[in-house]
Amino acid sequence: MALVPFRVSGPAADQSLQVRTMQLGGYAIRITQDQQASASLQPLQAGHHLSDEDALRRPGERLDGVGFVVWQSAFVLLEYLLRCPPFGQWADVRVVELGSGTGVGGIALVLAGADVLLTDLTHVVPLTSHNVTANCGEQNHRSSVCKYTWGDEVKPLGPQPDLIIGSDVVYQQEYFDDLIDTIWRLSAPHTLTFLAYRVRGRGEDVFRAKLDKKGFAVIALPPTSLHEEYADGQYVILRICKV
């Protein structure tokens, strides 16, 4: 099947819409975002929607607001992965997504044929589950959603996956060690991890240094390998594996 670039209904940079419809690799995905979609949170005040910058908390702040919007780095990562499958195809590829949020990443890979476990914090999981159920249809048997906090025991996540993915999970330095430790313990010798983020000057170099110190081999994909709209260096995809 021919893959097409992602398209979003409305301005690509607008993160305020409660429902977004998009095309990713030829798959139509309809994502509900906004805190009101989570049964575990109080509704927002009338007329207020969570923006990308609202969701990106400063270090030391609570995580109540994260995970409820579609982040642009998810599009960047998925456009690349659907165009260049790391294992050549998606059938029988087991994926764990860390920080799934709205679930768009895991959903796209389920539709492509992978078996995906989507994970996030307790208060985010209701929104993730809602979107997975709404989009995966007959392929829901290849998706599952569970609560997981970085740094916790990874055994409940099942066998070590072939692929680990995460979008815009690199922005709060106090969680870097837990995230890296989780990736390390989840990774088998063959496991590949792809993390995408927007460069904001919020410790990205520190994160890279910590990955190196842990013993990972880390490659930043050339900007020219990303979709042409995002090849200006603002977005980075890291390819990570154990040495």
From TrEMBL:
InterPro entries: Methyltransf_16, SAM-dependent_MTases_sf
Domain of life, per lineage: Eukaryota
Designated name of the protein: Uncharacterized protein
